[in-house]
Amino acid sequence: MTAAVRRAAFPLDEPIEEGKLEKLASMSWIPPRTNRIYSGPELRCGQTAKALGLQPIVSADLKIVAQLQSIGLPCDGRDGFRGIAACAGSTGCDASLADVRGDAAALARLLAGSPKPSGWTVNLSGCEKQCAPRRGATAEVLSEALSR
After folding, report:
1. Which end of the chain has fewer CB atoms surrounding its CB within 10 Å, N or C?
2. Which one, of 34, 42, 37, 41, lies nearest residue 56 by Cα?
3. CA dihedral 105, 107, 112, 118 (to 10 degrees)
4. pLDDT in tens, 95-116
């Protein structure tokens, strides 16, 4: 575990927290028949493999974070989307009364870069079915029909 993982950030060069490698190395486990394992390029991946007595082989196929970031999907947790869930909204569901996906993106832009309490979540639902995935969120936003 690293501090960045707790923040949902995945830097390539952050080491595993002090004392965690020793704890990992002291675990009783049955290693695989080979001592080599494919590893992502992140420092913590190599450290974990070595603590388990394995020889990490960095695989280009496992450069997932870099691939996600290259197509515009941030992985550092600072973009504001962390903790936000939304249903399909009016662009993907006939029952929805609002574009809650657009509302979720607008909320994320407002929250970008600001710290949020641990476990904080918000659901945005376009109708009474409340299809946003998390139940018992910190905040639940439900669209209603406007009366005129």
Report:
1. C
2. 37
3. -110
4. 999 999 999 999 999 988 888 7
Q: Which residue range is the domain that position 52 belongs to?
A: 3-70
Residue 65 pLDDT greater than 80, yes or no: no
Alpha-carbon gap, residue 49 to 43, rounded angstroms: 10
Task: Say how many domains are in the chain.
Answer: 2
Phi/psi for 139 (5° steps) reads -140, 140
The strand pairing partners of 85, in sequence order, are 123
To the question of pTM greater than 0.85 for the whole model, the response is: no
Residue 27 falls inside a structural domain: yes
Within 8 A by CB and 6+ apart from 147, the residues are: none
Distances, alpha carbon 123 to alpha carbons 24, 26, 73, 99, 118, in Å: 36, 41, 20, 13, 16
65 in the same domain as 30: yes
Identify whether residues 46 and 95 lie together within a single domain. no
Question: Are residues 63 and 88 both part of a single domain?
Answer: no
| Residue owning tokens 């990992």 | 24
CB contact at 8 A, 143 and 97: yes
